[in-house]
Amino acid sequence: MPRRPVFITALLVLAGALSGCASAPKGGSLSDYIAVGYTNVTTTCGGGYQVYRQPINGRLLVAAYAVSEMRQTFCQSWRGEPSVSPVTGVRHEEAALEYIAQTPAMKGCTLVSGIEISRLHSEFVIACPASPAAAVTAKG
Q1: Closest residue by Cα to residue 127 from 50, 59, 27
Q2: What pLDDT does 138 receive?
Q3: If you count Cβ atoms within 10 Å of the first and of the last residue's Cβ in the chain, which end, N or C, has fewer?
Q4: Average pLDDT per block of 10 residues along the chain, 140 residues long
């Protein structure tokens, strides 16, 4: 008898994980990242993510693996942590912050806002300090 509830629970967890793939996208556009390379990032809970950096507008797209999303959710629940981060309130923020921390060219950059495109994709707007401009002198 105990086998049936475990089987049903496992099916529900699997269906929930796969439903993220089938949900209708909202917000940003995944097509903006088609020809963009990605970097693999691992968070403190061991979740694996792909982070894409759009070179034109500097936005970040974080794509979670379904298994990583389940692992991250379970780990945060186990630790008593909120499922969304306090800066933007958008899922996968921890992966975006980890990407910024490990990318030397993004030193000093911060997350400004984010949007959850689907359960497995979030897009973030970043702000980076302006690079120092060369001094210009006018001769008259």
Answers
A1: 59
A2: 60
A3: C
A4: 48 44 51 85 85 88 86 79 72 90 91 91 90 59
- For residue 136, which amino acid is it? V
Complete DSSP assignment for 53-104: E-TTT--EEEEE-HHHHHHHHHHHHHHT--SS-TTT--TTHHHHHHHHHH-G
Scan for tokens 């379970």, then name that residue. Answer: 74
- Across the beta sheet with 110-118, the strand order is 38-42, 48-53, 60-64, 121-127, 110-118
Task: Round to whole Å and give the CA distance between 104 and 41.
Answer: 14
- The token pair that represents 55 in the structure block: 């070179």
The amino acid at residue 138 is A
Please name which of 19, 88, 79 lies closest in space to residue 60, comparing C-alpha atoms: 88
